[in-house]
Design a protein that fits this description.
The chain is mostly beta strands and 379 residues long. It contains 2 helices and 18 strands. The strands form 2 sheets. The chain has a 16-stranded antiparallel sheet with strand order 1-2-3-4-5-6-7-8-9-10-11-14-15-16-17-18. It has a two-stranded antiparallel ribbon with strand order 12-13.
Length: 379
């Protein structure tokens, strides 16, 4: 893979070679975030939403022609369409949550665009959970290069990908599974450029203990997840690395039986030849209030809690707070820095069957803030 580095800037990158890091990056972190953040979150919380105890729609099929809109300080306004088809594969199976498949097309103010198809299937009385996605797009983003540069550097990633995964119930609440992800990407920054696209093949292993009251809108119980994604050499990968993600979600029903107190702990660990886009970013994925992409590293720890106030059968609100920190950052000053977050949001139930909801969150971080349109809950 050819790398062109500006002759003017190359001496400044000898200790912090950001340009080379960008040029050899797989975009697994970005892709996984886009796949499951608000869309394919079904593994963690389903496509359901506020107020209901049902994971299933009434009848066999329901079509949801959802418009898509978002805003953040890096991408600007994003508009698009998110049509979703929810269905029950078997009318005899009354235990499995409703399955879903859909499309997403979007275009952002900073000229990023994205198109994908995705799905989540619950089969055989919830003994099998199958997810898939495929798509392509151009993403424009930025990172902050610390001393001696001290400036934001923009970069673009052109990517297409295919993802497929499954989990099988082993016993009681325990699931285990595997996944495969293929990515082809080409990166361009203000200081360097890929001449050829890179291709990566990743294998994932997952274990989940799912003791929630339901997958659509948990009112009680907890969920523990462990996910390991590896890029082994025998599959032709040049960058040999692993990503381990550990999470714990807990839900407590309030005495009024309507409101919910939800808590999430998350740890991300990069192992091996971790490069730029495999790093964990403090952003909407695990701490709202950070939209500029400034804080990133090989390791991330985050904790947040959220109160879900269901004061009306179709209208609700949330209040949340959290804290995170990164380690193994290219910017040494960011290592171990405490990054707080606080915010609130609005929710509206747009489908009564599963009480699926849409809304927005506004959050304030350290020197940053975010506004996001949200489909389903944050966790």
């Amino acid at each position: 893979m050819a790398i062109r580095v500006s002759a003017l800037l190359s001496p400044l990158y000898r200790k912090q070679d950001y340009s080379q890091e960008i040029m050899k990056t797989p975009v697994a972190t970005l892709i996984i975030a886009l796949l499951f953040l608000n869309l394919l979150n079904a593994k963690s919380q389903g496509f359901g939403g506020m107020g209901g105890d049902s994971d299933r729609i009434e009848g066999k099929v329901k079509f949801l022609p959802i418009p898509y809109a978002d805003y953040d300080r890096s991408s600007g306004f994003t508009v698009g369409a998110l049509p979703i088809l929810m269905f029950n594969p078997s009318q005899k199976d009354t235990i499995s949550p409703s399955s879903a498949t859909g499309l997403l097309v979007s275009y952002s103010e900073n000229k990023s665009w994205f198109a994908m198809t995705f799905g989540m299937l619950y089969l055989q009385e919830d003994n099998w959970r199958i997810s898939y996605a495929a798509g392509l797009g151009d993403f424009n983003f930025q990172f902050f290069a610390n001393s001696p540069i001290n400036q934001w550097i923009k970069y673009q990633t052109n990517v297409d990908f295919v993802y497929a995964g499954f989990e099988r119930k082993i016993k009681s609440n325990l699931y285990g599974g595997m996944s495969y992800i293929y990515t082809s990407f080409k990166n361009t920054s203000e200081v360097s450029n890929d001449s050829l696209p890179a291709r990566l093949h990743g294998i994932g292993y997952s274990a989940t203990w799912d003791a929630r009251s339901n997958v659509s809108y948990p009112r009680s119980g907890f969920q523990v997840e462990a996910d390991l994604t590896t890029y082994p050499s025998f599959m032709g990968n040049n960058s040999l690395s692993n990503q381990l993600e550990l999470s714990y979600n807990h839900y407590i029903s309030m005495p009024n039986k309507k409101d919910v107190l939800a808590t999430r702990l998350f740890t991300g660990i990069g192992i091996g030849d971790v490069n730029f886009n495999q790093q964990f970013i403090v952003d909407d994925t695990d701490l709202r209030g950070y939209s500029m992409g400034q804080y990133r590293g090989n390791y991330l720890v985050a904790a947040q809690t959220e109160y879900r106030w269901n004061f009306h059968k179709r209208i609700g609100a949330v209040g949340f707070a959290g804290i995170a920190s990164v380690f193994g950052s290219n910017n040494a000053d960011d290592n171990g820095k405490l990054l707080p977050s606080i915010g609130c949001g609005f929710r509206y139930t747009y489908m009564k069957d599963t009480h699926s909801n849409i809304g927005f969150d506004v959050a304030k971080g350290k020197g940053d803030w975010s506004f996001n349109i949200r489909i389903s809950e944050a966790f």
